[in-house]
Amino acid sequence: MPLDFRVGNNPGDYGRSLASCKALFETGIDGLFSDDLDTALLAAEEFRRH
Q1: Are 17 and 5 in contact (CB under 8 A)?
Q2: Alpha-carbon dihedral sign for residues 39, 11, 30, 24
Q3: What is the rounded CA–CA span in Å between residue 20 and residue 5?
Q4: Which of 16, 20, 29, 35 is buried deepest, with most CB atoms within 10 A?
Q5: What pLDDT does 26 receive?
């Protein structure tokens, strides 16, 4: 998890994963690899709606 999206001190924690994925889509990429597929798909869906 990038530092800007971490919550707490454990880098393995869930943190702000949805916000992290949305930020990636805002850069113009059209896909990503994720260990948390549900969150990545939700971020892509929300990004496309806006």
Answers
A1: yes
A2: positive
A3: 6
A4: 20
A5: 93
The owner of tokens 């709606």 is 49
- Tell me how far CA of residue 31 lies from CA of 12, 13, 14, 22, in angstroms: 22, 23, 20, 11
**What pLDDT sits at residue 46?**
92
- Burial class of residue 47 (count of CB atoms within 10 Å of its CB; 0-12, 13-18, 19+): middle
- CA 20-25-15 angle, to 5 degrees, is 10
Scan for tokens 């798909």, then name that residue.
41
Tens digits of per-residue pLDDT, 1-50?
Answer: 788 899 988 877 888 999 999 999 999 998 899 888 999 999 999 999 98
